[in-house]
Design a protein that fits this description.
heterodimer, A: Glutaredoxin, 9 strands, 20% strand, B: 7 helices, 45% helix
């Protein structure tokens, strides 16, 4: 028995180490509740959207050309899904982008969804978000069902897979999200030092 | 008079690359796919590889680029390579003008993978695509360093020196 334990313990240790690495690499699986103010100073918290069928959190920017390439697509997504029970929350965590700049940018690009200012990138840190545009889709229990890109090309004419739309359609039709993680190039979120 | 004219022509010839940078044809940017990337990493020829992923639209990439050019000038025992993730049809309009502006002294490619995700995963499955990103491979093609985000000249130099002195582990592929 003692000799068996000798072998089992290192194996268990390796499993724990491997598992913890995987968890770390893939980021959090559930979002904590948070409070942030939008560009008009109105406070929102994640739990306000508990009753939504899905909440789309979009880390966005005003100065990032990739995020800006998606402005029209983000506005269209909001228009297409807001009446279907999907909530949209834009979050700006870039230290150099002011509340006034975010307000002007939202107005000129017709981004009608709530956009929150994440001072000192506290929420970006909690999500482990690192670039813009970076998307998280949550259910009512704040579980992260999808993390990644809006679609597979910053150039709209080259898009082959509309990943965020596919995810929302699956959730709305009661299906399991088939692709929970995608990747794309984006602008690094400029954090406060 | 003839001598002056000859001298003028010689000076003009020597400086033609700077006067007519677009016509000099010195900078070329080819596409890179999985096969080329694998070959690049494997064919070390005794040098470590400093691989920087960048884009002309990426402000921190543009900011750190001069440091890489400076290091490439100084460290001849390191192969410096850049991969731009701009579109291949932006080579002439965006990429080459940026490289010329920075007086680039190392090879640069443009992403020729079928999708961004394929390139990201080919380099590191734990990398989420945030730019800039830098990888250092040792002389055996083993990945030694992954740097996410913009770095300074000193930070790059420190990581390169570390990679130059570290012993190589067993090869694990890309």
């Amino acid at each position: 028995m003692k000799s068996k334990i000798k072998y089992i313990l290192p194996v268990l240790f390796l499993l724990v180490v491997t598992f913890s690495k995987i968890t770390f690499a893939s980021g959090p699986t559930k979002a904590e509740n948070f409070k942030l103010k939008d560009y008009n100073g109105k406070e929102y918290q994640l739990s306000d959207f508990k009753s939504s069928k899905a909440t789309v959190i979009m880390f966005i920017a005003t100065q990032c050309p990739v995020s800006n390439a998606y402005n029209t697509r983000m506005a269209q997504l909001y228009a297409d899904y807001k009446d279907k029970g999907v909530a949209f929350l834009g979050i700006n965590s870039n230290v150099q982008e002011s509340v006034d700049e975010i307000k002007d940018h939202a107005k000129s690009n017709k981004l009608d969804f709530v956009i929150l200012k994440d001072n000192k990138n506290v929420i970006a840190d909690k999500f482990d978000a690192s670039f813009t545009p970076e998307i998280y889709v949550l259910n009512g229990s704040s579980e992260i069902l999808y993390h990644g890109r809006i679609d597979d090309s910053r150039r709209e004419s080259d898009v082959k897979t509309k990943d965020l739309r596919a995810t929302l359609d699956e959730i709305l039709s009661g299906k399991k999200v088939s692709v929970s993680e995608t990747k794309a190039f984006g602008c690094t979120i400029k954090r406060s030092k | 008079m003839k001598r002056i004219l000859s001298l003028f022509i010689i000076i003009l010839l020597f400086n033609s690359a700077d006067i007519f940078p677009q016509q000099s044809g010195k900078i070329t940017v080819e596409t890179i796919d999985k096969a080329k990337l694998t070959k690049l990493i494997k064919d070390r020829k005794g040098k470590i590889l400093f691989l920087n992923l960048w884009a002309t639209w990426c402000v921190p990439c543009r900011e750190e680029f001069p440091s890489i050019v400076k290091l490439a000038d100084e460290m001849k025992d390191v192969e410096f390579v850049g991969i731009s993730v701009d579109f291949p049809d932006e080579v002439d309009t965006e990429i080459i003008p940026f490289l010329k502006l920075n007086k680039v002294n190392f090879t640069n490619y443009v992403n020729g993978f079928s999708g961004d995700e394929e390139l990201i995963n080919a380099l590191d499955k734990n990398w989420n695509g945030a730019l800039p990103a830098t990888f250092i491979f040792d002389v055996k093609g083993n990945k030694k360093v992954f740097l996410s985000g913009s770095k300074s000249y000193d930070e790059f130099k420190k990581e390169i020196q570390k990679a130059l002195t570290q012993p190589s582990p067993q090869r694990r592929g890309l």
